[in-house]
Amino acid sequence: MVLFVLLVFYQTKLFAQGNGIAGINEATQMITSYFDPATKLIYAIGAVVGLIGGVKVYNKFTSGDPDTSKTAASWFGACIFLIVSASILRSFFL
């Protein structure tokens, strides 16, 4: 009787492992399918931030503000950060 219980427990443990692995594989596939749309969304956000930054820098430049180069560098750095972070995240997880 004890041997039968141990055998049933062992087989149940093996079957449970297979279902867990299939679930993990399915979750991994679902998560990786979101990377392409997320990367495109980050690129679009970077484009909008770049346009807003360009307008702000232009307004500062035309008003004669001496702090124009600092503002331009910060907006340019923000756009580069968005693009690079999207590319690195995509290459790291895929």
Can you give a write-up of this model?
- Keywords: Membrane, Transmembrane, Transmembrane helix.
- This is DUF4134 domain-containing protein.
- By secondary structure, the protein is mainly α.
- It has a domain at 35-94.
- The chain is 93% helix and 0% strand.
- The chain has helices at 2-33, 35-63, 68-93.
- It is rod-shaped and about 90 Å long.
Which structural traits does this protein have?
rod-shaped, 3 helices, mainly alpha, 94 residues
N-to-C terminal Cα separation, in Å?
Answer: 50 Å
Percent of sequence in beta strands: under 5%
List the total number of helices.
3
How many strands, what sense, and barrel or not for the largest sheet?
none
Work out the helicity level: over 70%
Strand tally is 0
Mean pLDDT across the residues is 78
Global geometry: rod-shaped
Q: Which structural class do you get from the secondary structure elements?
A: mainly alpha
The value of Rg in angstroms is 26 Å
In sequence order, what are the helices and strands, one letter per element? HHH
Organism: Myroides pelagicus
InterPro entries: DUF4134
Protein name: DUF4134 domain-containing protein
Keywords: Membrane, Transmembrane, Transmembrane helix
